[in-house]
Predict the 3D structure of the following.
Amino acid sequence: MICPLENPENTQVLLDYGARKLDSAHTAILERHMEHCPSCREFAAGQRALCEAMDSWEAPPVSQDFNRRLYRRIDQEVSVWDMLARPFRPLFVRRGLPVAAAACLLVMAGVLIDQPPGSPAVSQKDMAQVESVQPEQVEQALDAMEMLSEFSHHVRSDGQESKL
Amino acid sequence: MAERVRNDMGGATAALDFDAELMLRVKEGDGASFSVLLEKHRSSVVHFLYRMIQNHAVAEELAQEVFLRVYRSRGTYEPTAKFTTWLFRIATHLALNSLRDGKNERSQERLDDDSSDMPGRQVSDRRPSVEQSLVYQAKLDEIRRAIAALPEKQRAAVLMHKYEEMEYSQIAKVLTCSESAVKSLLFRAYETLRARLAHMA
């Protein structure tokens, strides 16, 4: 066995041995190596002592009302969207959606027609802006999209209920 | 559905990821599956966040946010990785943000307190003497301080390796780095801890 301390890719063997996570086959190989390698022996003993000390750090139990608080937050989130959507619901269900879809189509058609044939679709400035978007911004945008889809789902389901 | 998870993730490990199957059921509107996932992973997420932040109230608040994000993302969930990898990636992201924002300033103060956050050591057969309790608390505080002093990524890697018993490949995915980078992070972190806590051995 090549000494784990001389091979950075293999030092995890000593870490796992110290944490008692190494399987029996590898443990046997390492113990045979340690019989004539004082550096590994010392490292493993120190690592094992550290892991045993760390074992004494217990985390406190989770609060009993953790689930209740979480489900309340989930319910609140759903009900806030429901409350915000309520005044606009008839518009969205009866007239809003077809009107909005038609307006979107008109705007898109207008943009396509107005665009000169030779002009580049995206300017370099826009590209630079796109490249500088942070992961947090993407995450926030995805969260917002998720909220919107939930919102439209509610509107749709309420619309179906009102039809019934 | 199990077949779909197998196809999406590939290999035997993925086939065993029952959590991903549960999450796909949540995606299809099954609230009970979300409850199962919550029961299964609640403790490990709270405990990981507690050891990262070292403040129980903040850790629980962040854990709530983790599960809220899981619930919010159910519609777009795709089992591209192990469920726990995704879960701990969210938890680590929130913990690192909280540490950077300094939201847990109280945590360092708590280390100087009598550690009322900590559970009392359960000794059922014999009660420890006052002296033993003090020695135990002092030892615990030293461990907490040593871990708190580690750089954030090293701390996260050690906690996932030591307490969550995650594999190197999974820690690498959570921290979005290579497996060899994780090994290096862990080696340096444990080296620092061994040096700081050598007198305890």
Observations:
- The radius of gyration of chain B is 19 Å.
